[in-house]
Amino acid sequence: MEFLMRSTVRAFLLSGLFGLAAIPALAGPDIYRAGTSPASECADELARTDGASLRLLHLCDEGAAQPDLTAKGRAAALANAGTVRLRLGNLEEAVIHLSKAQDLGAPKDSVISLSAALIRLERAEEAATLLSDLNGVSPDLMPTALYNRATAQLQRDNTKAAYLDLLEATRLAPDYAPAQELLTHFTVTPYSAMAEAGEEERDPETDCVAAARRHQIDVFRK
């Protein structure tokens, strides 16, 4: 089979990826002994809304700097601070905070936000490497992780890998609209039809031709 990517994919990616990337890495309730704290308030507000503000940014930064956090708590607080920056469009700082969170052992789910920031910065190789092992991602977020990995693969011009990730995302969550929508931009054609048209680039392992190698993906423009 041939995996053919039509150019209309460009218009979809920004809205789809932005919606997926704003998933907060929530601090666990066992981290905080009693009462409220900036870190817990930051996590609660991230869970309540998809938006962000400078007030929330300052709150989450204050939470990440709390001296009484456990190692697990600090990792989650840094991930939350990175997620706020991602929502505000401060991508470079988002990568810094989310990477620090990963180094400190943040929940695996935080790779979703980190990968989204990397993709928007057109650092697809790093995003694909980050998402190469999805063990530990929550089952309900696995379709999102697969979608982001597919997006990174498209930036790398690896159309077949992107297509297979999207198929897996829809297998796990048949109603997952972002993957369903992106799949509509693929045309699958039998290899025999490509051979008749004179195409010769063949994948011997899958008996297919990957013929969408020059498309460009711009996740910054609608």
Automatic annotation (TrEMBL):
Q: Which InterPro entries match?
A: TPR-like_helical_dom_sf, TPR_rpt
SMART domains registered for this protein in UniProt? TPR
Source organism's superkingdom? Bacteria
Q: Which Gene3D superfamilies match?
A: Tetratricopeptide repeat domain
Q: What is this protein called?
A: Tetratrico peptide repeat group 5 domain-containing protein
Q: Which organism's genome codes for this protein?
A: Hyphomonas beringensis
Q: What is the lineage of its organism?
A: Bacteria, Pseudomonadati, Pseudomonadota, Alphaproteobacteria, Hyphomonadales
